[in-house]
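User: For a benchmark we're assembling, each entry needs the component sequences followed by a predicted structure for the full assembly. Here are entry 17's components. Please fill in the structure.
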Amino acid sequence: MTGDTKQRLTLLRDMLIEHVPHAKALGLEVVAAEAGMCRMKVAYAPHLVGNPDTGVVHGGVITSMLDNACGVAVQMALGEPTSIATLDLRIDYMRPAAPRRDIIGEARCYKVTRSIAFVRGVAFQDDVENPVATCVGAFMLAANRATSPSVQARAQARAALDADEASAGAKD
Amino acid sequence: MRDLEHIAQGRSINEVMATIPYVAFLGITFEPVGDELLAKLAFTQHLIGNPVLPALHGGVIGGFLETAAIVHVTRESKSRVLPKTIDITIDYLRSGRPLDTYARATITKHGRRIANVQVIAWQDDPAKPIAAAHGHFLLEPLSARATC
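Assistant: Structure for entry 17:
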């Protein structure tokens, strides 16, 4: 990853957190993004606990992170900034997240049609092969007239990443 | 969860729910309406996912519906252990406006180990639901190993 790419990821992250109050409240962070992919992280925090006896994070936190990561993955797959809306999201829980540790959520947009984008994702801690949860969802494209302010930032970051990859490819 | 025992002892469900940090963070409370229990998500600014519309975050709606389902299953099965979510599918029908949101859960099938639950959420008009979810919940852990 070049310094420029890191800078753009920071921009993307700042825009996302700055403009999505709930993402900010949860402490969501974009750790990686490329064409059609987004990886996010949520740091363990006391207010996210769903079972005070075990300290396990509530499923809603996983849902929020995966929904958000899927949305960013769709934006990263689209050629130009488009408003999107979640149509449906299915979450399968494989195991409780181990308390006091970060959770990673990674989403990939594997198909875009004229109206719909299809995504799947996984939430894990150390090992992606031992997931906490997986998800699959569909997003409607051009869902409404109002475009989220982060859409523009995502589009800029996406264009910059493409340019980065192209120049890296040219060097190889 | 040990607090669930207090429900059986007549402690208010909202007192018990207030001890769950994420439930308190979202601002979920429960109101008895007739025989039913209505879940309420009080609007606050930190629930917003799209500030331009503005609209509630999809994950907030998901977490709210999951919580409503879990509480309903706990109450109906008179369980002292929180049921575990196996899977939940959320259909988003309308954008969630910056208003209070309500949800009602129904058990489609209550098996020995698994409950199939449906949940509907609405805001000012019950005839215009903003989301619907269905999911499977594990009623009792199979072994001590399953409860981490």
